[in-house]
Structure formats: C-alpha cells, structure tokens
C-alpha cells in the first residue's frame, strides 16, 4: 500500500487533472468519483489534506461517508 507524507498528499488536490484524495485516521481515500468533491472542494474542505478532525468534530455524517470509497494508501507522519 502506498504511503503518503502530508506534502505528497497535498499534490492530490483534485485540481489540474489530479485526483482528489483525503486522509482520515491515517487512511488515504480517493474522493475523485464523488460529485460532492468536484474540483477538489466540498463544503469548504479541500482535497489533499488530512480531514480527520473535520470528519469527527464538524461533520454531521461522521465516517458513514467513507463506506465504499477506494483506499489508496496510508498517511505517514513524514512531512
């Protein structure tokens, strides 16, 4: 499984033909196929970032939105 540093994850922001990836609890998901993430943005959140805090503390749907998303790797602590 691919390992992503935060800097590598940031490249997958859904812009300029890049896929849109987000990390939650250390797992990196591909949200490119979701209409809600068109252009790498969803309700003020940006792809290419760790959204763990947002998902658990601000999202009304918590982790139910992760079901069925392709897992593309793991987020490391490396910069």
TrEMBL record:
Gene3D superfamilies, A to Z: Cytochrome b5-like heme/steroid binding domain
Domain named Cytochrome b5 heme-binding: residues: 4-76
Pfam families per the UniProt record, alphabetical: Cyt-b5 (PF00173)
Source superkingdom: Bacteria
Record protein name field: Cytochrome B5
